[in-house]
Amino acid sequence: MNTKERKSIAEFYDHFIPYRDRADVKFFVDLAVENGGPVLEIGCGTGRVLIPTARAGIEIVGLDLAEDMLAVCRRHLDQEDEPTRARTRLVVADMRDFDLGRQFTLITTPFRPFEHLITVQDQMACLACVHRHLAPGGRFVLDMPNPSITQLADDRCLQETGDEPEFTMPDGRRVRRRQRVVSKDLIRQVNEFELIYHVTDADGREERLVYRFPRRYLFRYEAEHLLARAGFRVEALYSGYTGRPYGTVDDRELVFVTTKV
Predict the structure, then answer these.
(1) Residue 96 backbone phi and psi in degrees, to 5
(2) What is the domain extent for residue 165?
(3) What is the tally of structural domains in the chain?
(4) Are 67 and 165 found together in one domain?
(5) CA pair distance 259, 261, nearest whole angstrom
(6) How far apart are CA 88 and CA 246, in angstroms?
(7) Of 103, 148, 169, 239, which residue is most buried, by most CB within 10 angstroms?
(8) What share of the chain is helix, strand, coil (3-state, %, to 5)?
(9) Rounded to the nearest 5 degrees, what angle is found at the Cα of 125, between the Cα atoms of 120 and 130?
(10) 30 and 40 share a domain?
(11) Nearest CA to 13 among 144, 209, 239?
């Protein structure tokens, strides 16, 4: 993916209609208020969760490796009041290797950045960093998609699919996003994934941008063993962001609330 594609995808991010209504924002803000600050958000992106948390009066540090996404976040922060800006700090860093020189009462990974860690070594490196930065009595929340055996076995996902509604950018560009799985590695539990952006300019010119990346999926007990190995105790496991225990509703999400051992 070239520089233009990266910048475009960061620019589009906050306009995706499904992202606007995700219940995770309230979940993470409420948890931050309950725990108090400071909070570390890993994979903060454009500030979708970070900024509402800061508005709620909580000191928060946002960490992300994608400078294009952080540039959008900074533009959003520029529109906030001074107290909200003063409560936030953005850090460009790799989730597998960071040292902020402090500890946090709450560390979160909203919207699945952990699935971008492909090897167990990468996962353990990230969890070790989290463990070092989590204050005694603090909480670490790890959320990820709950893999569907049926979908993993269905090869129709190799075709370009998606039912997200089209949206219009402030400059008049119309954008439709579709997706497809390029390949599956069932042994490594890694899918090569593409997000495909069909962009139509105001003058009718069409463009196709593709963001391709690998995603590693984890099953429930695999994740629990990984957390235990890294020094975390699972306090609660939710099937989404409504606080309902895993197994009681449609379990498309795995949300682990953990404490430091």
Answers:
(1) -85, -15
(2) 149-216
(3) 2
(4) no
(5) 6
(6) 32
(7) 239
(8) 35, 35, 35
(9) 125
(10) yes
(11) 209
